[in-house]
Design brief:
Elements: E1 2-10, H1 13-39, H2 45-59, H3 66-87, E2 103-105, E3 110-112, E4 117-121, E5 124-128, H4 134-140, E6 145-155, E7 159-167, E8 178-184, E9 188-193, E10 196-201, H5 204-219, H6 227-236, H7 238-259, E11 262-267, H8 284-309, E12 313-316, E13 332-334, E14 344-347, E15 353-355, H9 356-367, H10 379-382, E16 386-387, H11 389-394, H12 398-411
Parallel strand pairs: 8-11, 10-16, 11-12
Antiparallel strand pairs: 1-7, 2-6, 3-4, 4-5, 6-7, 8-9, 9-10, 13-14, 14-15
Helix pairs in contact: 1-2, 1-3, 2-3, 5-6, 5-8, 7-8
Bound molecules: zinc ion (ZN).
Protein name: Putative transposase
InterPro entries: Cas12f1-like_TNB
GO molecular function: DNA binding
Length: about 400
Amino acid sequence: MERTIKLRVRVDYITYSALKEVEGEYREVLEDAINYGLSNKTTSFTRIKAGVYKTEREKHKDLPSHYIYTACEDASERLDSFEKLKKRGRSYTEKPSVRKVTVHLDDHLWKFSLDKISISTMQGRVFISPTFPKIFWRYYNTEWRIASEARFKLLKGNVVEFFIVFKRDEPKPYEPKGFIPVDLNEDSVSVLVDGKPMLLETNTKRITLGYEYRRKAITTRRSAEDREVKRKLKRLRERDKKVVIRRKLAKLIVKEAFESMSAIVLEALPRRPPEHMIKDVKDSQLRLRIYRSAFSSMKNAIIEKAKEFRVPVVLVNPSYTSSTCPIHGAKIVYQPDGGDAPRVGVCEKGKEKWHRDVVALYNLRKRAGDVSPVPLGSKESHDPPTVKLGRWLRAKSLHSIMNEHKMIEMKV
Ligand SMILES: [Zn+2]
């Protein structure tokens, strides 16, 4: 992991000219190095350096020799990214053009201290004394350390832009002690906390459809360019609302996983969107929108949050996760017409009842390699506790929701 901090320093004319002189020669070396790479069809730093070092050393006798190394590195990076652009058909020139030059420095070419930074030039060392911005101290005073490489760029008016790079070791994710499977659906997200299923309502489909009706009502027989219409559409804030739901849910799940040192288990590939869930929505655009916010965006939000907390995420094969009994391995039969409980099915072998989402949770956990026993015929298996959107949005943790639910159960 690295972060670059930019410092701006105004320097005196002598210092500026010494740096300007370096910049000029550095540019020449860089251009030669790029041309060498192009004509020898290589982007490798080692090969470019081996190819140009001797001649460049002759040409630039007074230039501190390490600038030739860093210019070769610079050339290799530029050629690399040019190659990538070319592959994507996004390069507009035959070769990488050197317009702006940022001079790269290695540990021989600069020294850091808090009162001054020294830079090697053909006139000996020059010094710049930056005032450090707040953001600098934020990195300087923590586990980040200053990297040996740095860069500078010259701006008009004797101003030097100096780039300091901070580095930090990539922290390792922990070895999971358990699993929290998460099953995404069009109107809810289910999780298994301490082996107990819980269904959190997200109403994604309902919210999307609701907004769609309101949007239609606003725009019917009126141009979307109309100012009044634009203002009303903007006030709908559909996206904002969904983002709040996603972020909060991702946070609750990841926090739970982090505190119990568990890994999160998700379906690897997207389930086919209209499978059994949104096929009733006729408009394909709308179906796609529901699908995105309920499945892909939700999944991405969880993965992103997990990265931040360094919680491992296990992605497993999603096929048949909701139609195979996690105990008997037999088929679970759902009533074709839905009936009173369209999401509840019966195991062909044991005849016990299962809620579709609970089945998926146990199967996801199993596929991640967890062999903990699955409760047979419990009430939760076919009638999991369902938490309303407004309730969990205000909750501090999934555990607190579960405890509250237990209290209610006990009173009943
Ligand atoms: Zn069964």
